[in-house]
Design a protein that fits this description.
About 25% of the residues lie in helices and about 25% in strands. A hairpin with a 2-residue loop joins strand 2 and strand 3. By secondary structure, the protein is an alpha+beta fold. The chain has 1 helix and 3 strands; from the N terminus they run βββα.
Length: about 60
């Protein structure tokens, strides 16, 4: 997750996907840094426990 000064369309959060990578972008205007840290902890937990798996073509 990465904090940005602004996001397109004045959005609070956007998920950005490229082949082999997924990133959450959050607006500093709407999302407090503590919320980002807690969200990152939760995302790390669900990925480590196998609850979220990305399956891009050509990747194992």
């Amino acid at each position: 997750m990465e904090l940005r000064d602004t996001l397109p369309g004045d959005r609070a959060v956007i998920g950005v996907e490229q082949e082999g990578e997924f990133m959450w972008l959050a607006s500093k205007k709407y999302v407090h840094p503590k919320a980002v840290a807690e969200f990152e902890d939760q995302l790390r937990r669900i990925v480590e426990q196998g609850w979220w798996v990305q399956n891009w073509p050509g990747r194992s």
